Amino acid sequence: MSCAEERGIGYETPYACVPIVPAAILYDLGVGDASIRPDAAAGYAACAAATSGPPAEGNVGAGSGATVGKLFGLERAMKGGIGTASVRGAGVTVGALVAVNAIGDVFDGPTWLAGLRTADGRGADRSMGALLAGTTPLRTRPATATTIGVVATDVALGKLQTHQLARVAHDGLPRAIAPVHTGLDGDALFAVATGTNRVAADATVLGAMAAEAVRVAIVRAVRAAQSLPGFPAARDFAGG
User: Fold this and answer.
1) 126: burial class by Cβ within 10 Å (0-12, 13-18, 19+)?
2) What is the pLDDT of residues 188-204, one digit of tens each?
3) C-alpha distances in Å from residue 43, one per residue of 4, 21, 32, 40, 131
4) pLDDT at 240 over 80
């Protein structure tokens, strides 16, 4: 908020420009040092480090402590991360930035990438298969796993249209994560429209692009992740 205020970015009122910043968090206190948490200084540093170049992916930022496949406890989970993607078409662009800390497994199409491991930790299991077989998940606090992110387009949208874009973007989650939107997840996506592109975009096209950008960003997050002690990454896991 301080960084935005210094740059005159925010909601214009008759008396001041108010830097309103929506936020969401993911729960990763079981990985690494639980005393290290994002604060105002970290937020300011992130704004100051913003660039038009390709963002870092994997074990950075919100992806540092992210994990996936936690249906039966962290000891059978794998490393998640943060990923980005953009889709261009019909003269417009839609991008996505997603931090993947899901309770479920991550897939690229039919291919299992990361998630629940077998009890010995050496092989790939399937969370959906276990659930459909009637296996009860490990009891845990609600919303201690989540996939959060933002979708952005360069076209001009009103508030209602932007809200709808965020809603439709959620369609990308079940294309890459299963199970998803469980009572243990706190999945949330925000949407942004910069208005720098004056092309009149079709809402259906924008929604399809947003969902695909989210799907690809999730896949990239897991593929870019690096292993941590006790949490193998997709790139290193022979059991997949």
Assistant:
1) middle
2) 999 999 999 999 999 99
3) 11, 11, 20, 5, 38
4) no
**How many CA atoms lie within 13 Å of 221's alpha carbon, on the beta-carbon side?**
39
Q: 111 in helix, strand or coil?
A: strand
14: pLDDT strictly greater than 90: yes
Contact (Cβ atoms closer than 8 angstroms) between residue 57 and residue 48: no
Residue of 111, 100, 30 lying closest to 59 (CA atoms): 100
Q: Using alpha carbons, select from 185, 157, 158, 181 the residue that is nearest to residue 170.
A: 181
CA end-to-end distance (rounded Å), the chain: 42
pTM > 0.90: yes or no: yes
pLDDT in tens, 94-133: 999 999 999 999 999 999 999 999 999 999 999 999 999 9
CA angle at residue 121 from 116 to 127, to 5 degrees? 15
Q: Which two tokens stand for residue 104?
A: 């479920």
Please, which residues bridge with residue 190 across strands?
150
Position 29, amino acid:
L
What is each CA distance from 121 to 15, 67, 78, 131, 136, in whole angstroms? 59, 15, 10, 19, 19
- In the DSSP assignment, the letter for residue 182 is -
Write out the two tokens for 222.
């897991």
Domains by residue range for the chain, with CATH: 25-33+57-236 (3.60.70.12)
Structure tokens at 128: 């959906």
